[in-house]
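User: I'm new to structure prediction. If I give you an amino acid sequence, what do you actually give back? Let's try with this one:
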Amino acid sequence: MKFTPKDENFVEKVRTSFSAQSVMKLIGAEITRIEAGAVDIELPYRKDLTQQNGFVHAGIITAIADTACGYAAFSLMPKNAEVLSVEFKVNLLSPAIGEKFLAEGRVLRAGKTLTIVQGNVFAVSENQQKHVATMLATLMCLQK
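Assistant: Good question. You get back a string of structure tokens that encode the predicted 3D arrangement of the chain. For your 144 residues, that looks like this:
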């Protein structure tokens, strides 16, 4: 879908806000794409992010999906707004095994207060992608 951002400086706004997220720094996640209504986040595999079976922990996968969804929604919000997750559902489709993980947030509907976003997370290995999680999220626009 094509969306028109309400803030012409939305790319800078998203990058600045993302850089303030200590948790994304902690796990080594980076934004790799910012478009109006679409944000991608990549996370390299790290053993210290795994659970007891060696899969990247579901909480980590959920964190990058939530963040991609949040910033996809934020990209369409007005200049002086903030974004806040108010609800999401995650389906874990396959064990998170890969060299890196790609979370894609895509806005489905942008409202004045609530924005609905779909997120998908893929495990990437040797240029092959495996769908490991999907999220449906509701984000709130907080006016300053």
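You can read the tokens as a compact description of the fold. Here is one thing that stands out. The mean pLDDT is 97.
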